[in-house]
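Page header: ASSEMBLY MODEL / two components / 1366 residues total.
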Amino acid sequence: PDDWTELDKRAVDTVRVLAADAVQKVGNGHPGTAMSLAPLAYTLFQRVMRHDPADADWIGRDRFVLSAGHSSLTLYIQLFLAGYGLELDDLKALRTWGSKTPGHPEYRHTNGVEITTGPLGQGLASAVGMAMAARRERGLFDPDAAPGESPFDHDIFVIASDGDIEEGVTSEASSLAGTQQLGNLTVVYDDNKISIEDDTTIALGEDTAKRYEAYGWHVQVVEGGENVTGLEAALKAAKAETDRPSFILLRTIIGYPAPKKMNTGAAHGAALGDDEVKAVKVALGFDPEQTFEVSDEVLAHAREVGKRGEHAKAEWQKGFDAWAQANPERKALLDRLVAKKLPEGWTDSLPTYPVDAKGTSTRKASGEVINAIAGVLPELWGGSADLAESNLTSIKGEKSFGPTSITTDMWKTDPYGRTLHFGVREHAMGSILNGIALHGPTRPYGGTFMVFSDYMRPAVRLAAIMEASVTYVWTHDSIGLGEDGPTHQPIEHLSALRAIPGLAVVRPGDANETAFAWRTILENAAPAGLALTRQNVPTLEGTSYEGVAKGAYVLSEASGGTPRLVLIGTGSELQIAVEAAKVLEGEGVPTRVVSMPCFEWFEAQDKSYRDSVIPPSVKARVAVEAGIAQSWHRWVGDAGEIVSIEHFGASADYQTLFKEFGFTTENVVAAAHLSLQHVEESK
Amino acid sequence: PDDWTELDKRAVDTVRVLAADAVQKVGNGHPGTAMSLAPLAYTLFQRVMRHDPADADWIGRDRFVLSAGHSSLTLYIQLFLAGYGLELDDLKALRTWGSKTPGHPEYRHTNGVEITTGPLGQGLASAVGMAMAARRERGLFDPDAAPGESPFDHDIFVIASDGDIEEGVTSEASSLAGTQQLGNLTVVYDDNKISIEDDTTIALGEDTAKRYEAYGWHVQVVEGGENVTGLEAALKAAKAETDRPSFILLRTIIGYPAPKKMNTGAAHGAALGDDEVKAVKVALGFDPEQTFEVSDEVLAHAREVGKRGEHAKAEWQKGFDAWAQANPERKALLDRLVAKKLPEGWTDSLPTYPVDAKGTSTRKASGEVINAIAGVLPELWGGSADLAESNLTSIKGEKSFGPTSITTDMWKTDPYGRTLHFGVREHAMGSILNGIALHGPTRPYGGTFMVFSDYMRPAVRLAAIMEASVTYVWTHDSIGLGEDGPTHQPIEHLSALRAIPGLAVVRPGDANETAFAWRTILENAAPAGLALTRQNVPTLEGTSYEGVAKGAYVLSEASGGTPRLVLIGTGSELQIAVEAAKVLEGEGVPTRVVSMPCFEWFEAQDKSYRDSVIPPSVKARVAVEAGIAQSWHRWVGDAGEIVSIEHFGASADYQTLFKEFGFTTENVVAAAHLSLQHVEESK
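Prediction written out in full:
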């Protein structure tokens, strides 16, 4: 560009040297991409993006997503240069215990990091969610502003690597981004043709630019990572393109200008070695004997972006204040959402259900809850991965999210619409939900069959790591799914999902518990997954909001108040525990029934509460759940029994399956006898 | 086609009527696609594919993969018509308990079903693996035959739906199929523009044909599912195209000719209703009052395919016999592999390691095992999802699998090569491994970081359901991964993988256990996942093949032979158990150390063996494993303690992480004291 100075060039070269030095110091890491993408990253942070290093949370900022998270130095060094609070000592502490510069960027850990991008593909896919959220939020707060005129208008920029391009989750998300015509999204693909197994020709022969054209994206190709003029022009053209997402294929040489290792896999994921680092410095006119050399002049020049950011924010603030003045209700909504508060009295909207032997399915109850609270909680939005009619995730009377051109007979769309249609793309759904939750203050949810939580698991794990406020509506949560058979019946999923630290897996036992579960999820910020039945379950006596919120509680007390036996159930098996308790009480065994919809919430209670629900002194315990026993041993203990299923399911109606696989009152009663016997024997 | 008769037309219409009737009878299922794809399925089974209904295992057969598994009737009705053993009563029993016609096709359950295709995307992705296996097997058995002249030449045909096209796993696999130039693969995409949420315009706006061109596929478009002439011409052109995989976009109308429900989501996944079924029959000239109407003439006509198949097989047999005659060694290899036998004395090739405090990493030992046995086990082949240098999965001296045009500086390729390069596509890798294992008698393996087992989980689950002989090489199996940080460190994965029924998760404790683990895995047929360390672990005293094969065993006995305490460890923490035992023995606590590399193998032993390893009478127990405790409660019991990690990891060197997160001898000793105290208190 015309105003590109020698100082800019020196700053870019400083980035390369810092990248080489930082990896060399710790002895491991990824120097090559941070070196070759130095011009791109510098151009984005210094010349293209609207951001203010003094306020990383400014809602008007452009978002930057480093999908190639292994190249964390690409981001850290720009945060250092721009003045986000990272200093040279932080770069020197790369990848060490307690540092602000871990191996991959971590959200909530380092100021200026928008999202945790470790596993490849997730960043790009979540960026699609951010771009969707930006549009939805604009629709919530400022729908009538002219294009580009709203304080809620901004762009999402992504740097993606070969691995991001190869991972299927980005194909899913990119296809959807094209359908959604996300003009506020720009992805730069660092086509360096090198991955860990060296030359990508061995595994990647496709025409990626053509593939993105097929998705309906605006596609540009820039030759040469050093071509800052072409790069900046492409980025500006991408920003100017508002009807389609933009894809810039940038052809770079990894590790440039390391004389021996550039353009090889050796530059990707290992320190270059002292000699090669020195050679880089010599090539760029730096002192080969110095490390972490940053001239005051370069740093001062780069930190001027702070002034530009301050100015940009001040300009933006005028527009924002005018908007706030003109839109007091919307401003109040924004304030409430940013404060992460729920509105006064919102729980009055929650449905309640009378005790009823016939009952309803918990998925249906969930759908009723969503619809009941949709009016008072405009922040709530979501959809399904092509199972809307099964997951019951749509909000009636609301339009679907999408350009009007994709309206169908069944779904009327609006760019600001509320119901999401992910297609059969569970993984992208998970990543997109993360992007939505990180972008702003709305509360997104997404539905699929519970068995397909496997497809979205990498995104669910990241939600847990990032503590993203995302809700999964996983229906058809057991063999109760019925006829579709073993490939569609969750068996191991409850245990496997409970295994993820920080994820609340909530399996309500009836319609009221479903409403209480939704309430508790929304009152908390942590990611949560609802496990919901396909089939009807009775609406039970004794359920309570307080109990559900604590994860487990006494649903019905043993006669006399002192149990000899505790039966624990969740979801569709809670009713079996209730029935079995009646039989056992009839036999003279004082039996307590515990409903335990959420292990994680229960674990968060203090020991005295936990012991009050499952008394340590009552060793005779039976758990019943239509899944594997793995996560239950802890709760039932040595003398306990677990009525579980330890093999895959089968294709038949659910009544037959419950019977054939032993989820019956008789079996629970038999297990209770066995557990009582264990207790006797151990005396 | 010229020889298409009225009887063919009637047969196709019979398919439609049977599909409508079968779903109507059970009351649920997917009639629409089975109806609209009737001409395609009939053309494939009756006119295009080489197969013999009398021998579903004929190795020379073309393979058929119904990736749109929900449309299982598409397959069942052809199996019925062709004479694979399914009869009308089986169709009448659709989706009911014990029937041969479950909701989705199940491998090993119904004769003629090549693969279990429930979850969308898996069939197409696994078909890529079948096509790869076909080429590799040809290379093993008959590499020098001219193209099309070998008894090992045949084709793979796939029917895929909108959902298959949307799922990312097919994007991964299709990109790789293009790179691999799999000319033996033909995918027909049923572009009916209807999925469960009705018109796919709401979520799928891409130009799919162009996308497949971008992958390097041969692409054809056929308008109209009734266009049997165009369809057959396209299928033959696809078969004739041997340098690229073929993609046929077939534009159909779902549910055709149901007058009210065709071309709507209502025809996709629900019974049509009595009136609509009758209307279909009227439209096709069938008696609306009859159900399951199949004329003898139609059935006899269709079953003639059996004679054609018999003839085709006889022709093929001549070529096969000539090959066998000319290639006795290769024939002997084929016979051994088909018999699922390992060669005499193969275990002599396995490496052994002397006891050594420094030791090696178990991933390195695994790489040495693979290389040591590669010569005697030509059936073994595999690779990595772009982590070959980390997973140590390459076989030295062997070429990579791929057309010579994708040779790189690092990897020499050959169409019959042995080392696989999946790119950063873990999910496709999982599905492809399934396809390879199902296609023929080779033993494939695939590597990635253990944390990315999440990405491949749907395929791993299917391997377990199908009992496919697949081995996963999951390295970097704990916080021992180190600097890459929490997104790359498995925490919950050991428990979450153990949760999958039928999957053996094997975590060897040192180099020798790694060799024993590989041996046991290969001696078994079940899918298995190795959990291997990045970091060195000492080579321990007392390891044994018999012990590893039984899943758990006494590594070192308590002094005096009667333990007061049992310490159980796996993988890199086994050494900590050994060290802690020394301390405890020094304190006068007779302590047994149990190595427990595989829960699943241990569970398969009889109770007396299990009790001999973990005596029920010894309640003081400590397990140590660098993962969550979830799967351990069962083994340590009420008085036990578990040294585990219940939160995500961090970015630092592994020594620091082990110390900071409490995986130390002192902590295990302290846990032992606590467990001994629990036992005392409970007396």
